[in-house]
């Protein structure tokens, strides 16, 4: 039996119970969950195996790649620059990135980038892991591309390109990488570009073995539709998610600072990031409130599900399924089943970080149950 360690306020015993059960029934291999309520740490739990190959156990400080949970942190960096007056949401990107005006993109704004409306959901040619570690090269590639649709007329999940688009705003206005900016402004344990020691301690991503239980939330019809599209190499969902192609256990990827999907962190640090957002520490309440206003909602051209986006943050929708009580929540899920979220109305912040990678496009019941339990404790 997996031993769950850490601390949990007695009022949140339901979260501990759900977390323990997730190991008992095989839903988790190794994982951590953290919750803050009204700014106070009420859940900080971890357990299981960090490395299936060696049997190394998950420790209190075990970090893990969190896939697209990274996007919310990268977006917050751009929002902080907006708040400080370095850039505005509605001015053309080409005003500060002149090369970006190529191929009909002269009217694209930072708001378009933050809301997946820029029409650049995928690269138009193969990208190597080495190239992906060079933000200047990635910006050059995106600047010269023609959009898939007229910017501002549709939206579709920029699964990997989102990060490099937003990172260029940070690089040009703050004079540093988004990884360095994030660590300086939001927390030293939010690694977008992890050093060797952090990579060595990181949990290794595994996939379910044949016969292990599934944890999908999404209905079968939607799963089938998405699966069929993903099996087609010419589809937007495949092109957006499969290039650059790499293993998320590859040290070169984890060190490379992928600003859409490569952040390495702990559940504790990710939940703390949302706590600071909810309580006006890292962004003002006014900036966050505006960022949470839904700009686009409907059928996502890439994910093929109902989605709702504020400025970089997802809001509750089919692509970010949350309990009904969490209607005020915001955040971002990750492909491995990870999730980070905050709720200003309830003073709640939560993060779940697993290393057993399940199907993001079908939703993940593990995080959903933990979120349900956390809300039950405060209602």
Describe the biggest sheet?
7 strands, antiparallel
Compute the number of structural domains. Answer: 1
Question: How large is the count of helical segments?
Answer: 14
Spans with pLDDT under 50 lasting ≥5 residues? none
Give a count of the beta strands, DSSP E runs of length 2 or more.
11
Q: Measured on Cα atoms, how large is the radius of gyration?
A: 19 Å
Q: Looking at the chains present, what oligomeric state does this protein adopt?
A: single chain
InterPro entries: Beta-lactam-related, Beta-lactam/transpept-like, Beta-lactamase/esterase
Keywords: Hydrolase
Protein name: Serine hydrolase domain-containing protein
Domain Beta-lactamase-related: 15-370
What are the SSEs and their pairings?
Blueprint: E1 4-8, H1 13-24, E2 30-37, E3 40-51, E4 56-57, E5 64-65, H2 69-83, H3 110-114, H4 129-132, H5 135-144, H6 161-174, H7 178-185, H8 196-201, H9 220-230, H10 236-241, H11 251-255, E6 264-265, H12 267-278, H13 285-292, E7 296-299, E8 306-309, E9 330-333, E10 339-343, E11 348-354, H14 365-378
Antiparallel strand pairs: 1-3, 2-3, 2-11, 3-4, 5-6, 7-8, 9-10, 10-11
Task: Write up this protein.
This protein has 379 residues and is α+β, with helices and mostly antiparallel strands. The chain has 14 helices and eleven strands. The strands form three sheets. Strands 1, 2, 3, 4, 9, 10 and 11 form a seven-stranded antiparallel sheet that branches. A hairpin with a 6-residue loop joins strand 7 and strand 8 (306-309). The mean pLDDT is 94. InterPro entries: Beta-lactam-related, Beta-lactam/transpept-like, Beta-lactamase/esterase. Residues 15-370 form the Beta-lactamase-related domain. One of its GO terms (molecular function) is hydrolase activity. Keywords: Hydrolase.
């Amino acid at each position: 039996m997996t031993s769950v360690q850490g601390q949990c306020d007695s009022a949140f015993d339901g979260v501990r119970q759900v977390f323990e059960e997730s190991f008992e029934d095989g839903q988790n291999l190794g994982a951590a969950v953290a919750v803050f309520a009204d700014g106070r740490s009420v859940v900080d739990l971890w357990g299981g195996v960090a490395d299936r190959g060696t049997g190394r156990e998950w420790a209190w400080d075990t970090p893990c790649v969190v896939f697209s949970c990274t996007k919310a942190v990268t977006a917050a960096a751009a929002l902080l620059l907006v708040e400080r007056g370095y850039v505005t949401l509605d001015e053309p990107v080409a005003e500060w990135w002149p090369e970006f005006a190529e191929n009909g993109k002269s009217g694209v704004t930072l708001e378009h980038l933050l809301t997946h409306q820029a029409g650049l959901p995928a690269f138009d040619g193969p990208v190597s892991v080495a190239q992906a570690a060079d933000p200047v090269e990635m910006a050059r590639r995106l600047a010269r591309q023609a959009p898939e649709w007229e910017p501002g007329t549709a939206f579709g999940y920029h699964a990997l390109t989102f990060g490099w688009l937003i990172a260029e705003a940070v690089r040009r206005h703050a004079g540093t990488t988004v990884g360095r900016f994030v660590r300086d402004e939001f927390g030293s344990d939010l690694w977008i570009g992890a050093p060797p020691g952090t990579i060595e301690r990181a949990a290794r991503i595994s996939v379910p073995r044949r016969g292990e239980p599934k944890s999908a939330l999404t209905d079968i019809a939607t799963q089938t539709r998405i699966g069929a599209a993903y099996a087609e190499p010419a589809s937007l969902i495949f092109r957006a998610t499969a290039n650059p192609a790499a293993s998320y256990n590859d040290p070169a990827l984890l060190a490379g600072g992928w600003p859409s999907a490569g952040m390495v962190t702990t559940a504790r640090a990710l939940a703390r990031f949302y706590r600071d957002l909810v309580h006006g520490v890292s962004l003002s309440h006014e900036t966050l409130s505006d960022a949470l206003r839904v700009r686009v909602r409907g059928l996502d051209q890439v994910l093929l599900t109902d989605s709702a986006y504020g400025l970089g943050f997802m809001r509750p929708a089919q692509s970010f399924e949350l309990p009904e009580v969490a209607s005020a929540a915001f955040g971002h899920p990750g492909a491995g089943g990870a999730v980070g979220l905050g709720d200003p109305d309830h003073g709640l912040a939560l993060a779940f970080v697993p290393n057993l990678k399940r199907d993001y496009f079908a939703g993940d019941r593990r995080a959903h149950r933990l979120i349900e339990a956390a809300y039950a404790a405060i209602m």
